[in-house]
Design brief:
Blueprint (H helix, E strand, L loop, with lengths): L5 H26 E3 L7 H25 L7 H23 L1 H7 L2 E3 L1 H20 L6 H25 L4 H5 L2 H15 L16 H23 L4 H29 L7 H7 L2 H8 L7 H30 L7 H22 L4 H33 L31
Parallel strand pairs: 1-2
Helix pairs in contact: 1-3, 2-3, 2-5, 2-9, 3-5, 3-6, 5-6, 5-8, 6-15, 8-14, 8-15, 9-10, 9-11, 9-12, 10-12, 10-13, 11-13, 12-13, 12-14, 13-14, 14-15
């Protein structure tokens, strides 16, 4: 017997994926070219490849396992993360190479360009966390394409118009992805979400896999923050990120116990808050000079993330009907904004000339204004597009359910010998 939900996916998901992949292959055949590496550059390749592997672990294992906490949505949380990641990375490679293609008709491909594309794809992975369990893979594919398009456009505007450094513009992915996802979950709100979804639950097994994803992210986050830094600043970025992450774990544990009525640790809250310091430091990595600055920022980021998880999530659901499944606002949005503020304060502190300080403040505010405006506009546009009946959004009773999309083997009877 054919799977109950096969016609919906067969008529939409398969054609879209095959058409997209065929288009990517054609573009690659016409435009892509491996950048030739000279023999003296082999050392730089050996230095970059471990960080390339670290970023892959973050994108595939870290974010993938992090989305497995719903009891009946483990296959979808991990599998759809992989699907979105590889599609978004290929699309980002093309978009990032448009300038090069315009000048030389060639898009050069190397480890650096793939890493940059994967970082652009992370913004999409952050956004789909807000609508996890409430969308089908066709909608997730559309989110990935439009999200990466908006983020690459934002990166191009910041680097071209405001002359922002590439690393600084890319690290705003946390703010962009969180606000983009917030618009998605707000406009795609459902009538049943205030009472809670029937299948939105987690147990020890799913929680353990999700914690494993959080641990992978925590372990490899220093590479995530330092991979685009200059060689001279890379060591400082790694050390600052580790210190901020370490302080975040201690602060998150303390605040989780204090905010719990029973005085116990909430595993989902811990998963969200232990990464807050790494997010904040990543946005402000270019101005952090002293270890205590990174540690103080890690403490503040974990505090604001824990407070947002415990109180802001409930108020957002009640007041604005925003059901943020993975609490991306508390995990990425608020710490990212804190990192932006820390960068502004630390940069102004080091300025002796008041005129230069005022100019930098105006410039820095413009950077945030462009990022926030574009993320909100792209999120609203994408959300209204996803509301079309053509995409067949899952029904309320089928949300957070693997069996709607996967052939889940429950029991296999033994054959008679």
């Amino acid at each position: 017997m054919a799977p109950r939900y096969a016609p919906s996916l067969r008529s939409r998901l398969a054609p879209i994926l095959l058409i997209l992949q065929a288009a990517f292959i054609i573009i690659a055949a016409l435009c892509f070219e491996n950048r030739q590496t000279k023999k003296p550059d082999s050392e730089s390749f050996l230095n970059l490849y471990p960080e390339f592997q670290d970023v892959n672990v973050i994108v595939i294992l870290g974010f993938g396992f992090l989305c497995t906490f719903p009891v009946r949505y483990g296959f979808s949380g991990c599998g759809f993360n992989l699907l979105v990641a590889v599609l978004a990375t290929q699309w980002a490679l093309i978009l990032n190479g448009i300038d090069s293609w315009y000048n030389t008709r060639i898009i050069g491909i190397d480890l650096k360009s793939i890493i940059t594309a994967e970082l652009c794809a992370v913004s999409a992975l952050i956004s789909i966390g807000s609508v996890l369990g409430k969308t089908n893979p066709v909608q997730l594919t559309l989110i990935a394409l439009l999200e990466v398009t908006g983020f690459v456009l934002n990166k191009w505007l910041l680097q071209t118009l405001l002359k922002v450094r590439p690393a600084n513009s890319i690290m705003l992915l946390h703010v962009f992805g969180a606000l983009f996802g917030l618009m998605l979950t707000w406009i795609l709100s459902r009538n049943a979400q205030e009472q809670g979804y029937e299948k939105e639950k987690f147990d020890k097994k799913s929680g353990l896999f999700s914690m494993l994803g959080a641990v992978f992210l925590w372990m490899f986050w220093p590479s995530f923050n330092s991979v685009l830094a200059d060689d001279q600043a890379r060591l400082g970025a790694v050390c600052s990120t580790y210190l901020a992450l370490a302080v975040s774990v201690v602060t998150a544990a303390a605040l989780a116990v204090l905010s719990s009525p029973r005085g116990t640790l909430n595993p989902i809250q811990m998963q969200s808050c232990i990464l807050a310091g790494g997010v904040a430091v990543g946005v402000s990595i270019s101005v952090i000079q002293q270890p205590w600055e990174a540690m103080a920022l890690g403490l503040a980021a974990a505090a604001i993330s824990a407070t947002g998880f415990r109180y802001l999530q409930t108020h957002m659901l009640t007041a604005f009907e925003c059901h943020d499944t993975c609490t991306v606002l508390s995990t990425h949005g608020l710490p990212g904004l804190l990192g932006w503020l820390a960068q502004l304060v630390l940069q102004i502190k080091d300025c002796d000339d008041h005129t230069v300080a005022i100019r930098f403040a105006v410039f820095h505010i413009c950077v945030l204004f462009v990022t926030v405006s574009l993320s909100l506009c792209m999120g609203i546009l994408t959300a209204f597009l996803l509301k079309l009946n053509f995409w067949r959004q899952p029904q309320n009773n089928k949300c957070f359910e693997d069996q709607a999309f996967w052939e889940v083997l429950i029991h296999m009877p033994l054959r008679n010998k």
